Amino acid sequence: MKIETYAKGRFQVLRVTEGDDKISDLSELQDLIIGYLNRGKCQYRCQLRRCLVYLQRRYRVLVNCHRMISERGGELCIIEPTQASLTRLSSSTSTA
Q1: What is the pTM of this model?
Q2: List of E strands, 32-89
Q3: How many angstroms separate the most distant Cα atoms in the chain?
Q4: C-alpha distances out from residue 77 to 21, 42, 55, 72, Å
């Protein structure tokens, strides 16, 4: 997995692209967000490009990131999500 990050206005943009490691679980993304939260950054935009976010553990990581960010008064927005991802995330957050 490859993660590019840059600031845009008040948001930290995180662009995640599937790499050669097809079994990645997005834990790198969670570690990165924890680091930014510890530095006081709470506004995120995340784009999952060619990233197969269908495994249960990947959704759990995204839901956990959303929870951590929300607890600090921030927001996590997924840029251009697929309909399948929206459905899955919506059911994951309502049952979490």
Answers
A1: 0.76
A2: 43-49, 75-79
A3: 35
A4: 25, 11, 20, 15
